[in-house]
Write a structure and sequence with these properties.
Number of strands: 5
Order of helices and strands: HEEHEHEEH
Radius of gyration: 14 Å
Distance between the termini: 33 Å
Strand content: 15-25%
Oligomer: single chain
Shape: globular
Largest sheet: 5 strands, mixed
Strand order of the largest sheet: 2-1-3-4-5
Structural class: alpha/beta
Amino acid sequence: MLEAIRQAKLAAQKEEIPIGAVVVKDGEIIARAHNQKQCKNNALLHAEIVAMDKACKKLGEKYLNDCDLYVTIEPCAMCAGAIINYRVKRLFYGAKEPKFGCCGSLYNLPEDKRFNHRVKVYGGIMEDVCGLILKDFFKERRKKP
């Protein structure tokens, strides 16, 4: 989670929503990313999606069966769907996202038994730190003219 937090802080420096993600296989980080929606003008470039795409390219695979994903904020519906489709093994996230979160807050898509693949979800990992990064970012943003 510490590397995901570093990625979130990097995103904030670039005026991106500060969310970071890392993909881990066999205890080793194989991909890391942060949001790139603003700088690349693409609403699909959430940290989770970018990290999972990088991981697949590195592995030369289309699935992440034996990989874990660490994200600073609870993933949204789009990312939760991608996590299922990439067949991630486990998801670890920091702070809950009560307005958009679909891994326990509004829905729990990754653990829904109706899907052909389920992802074990663990929330609240370094929750205070992860949530504070986002709160501080928006607090500073509101100060700007």
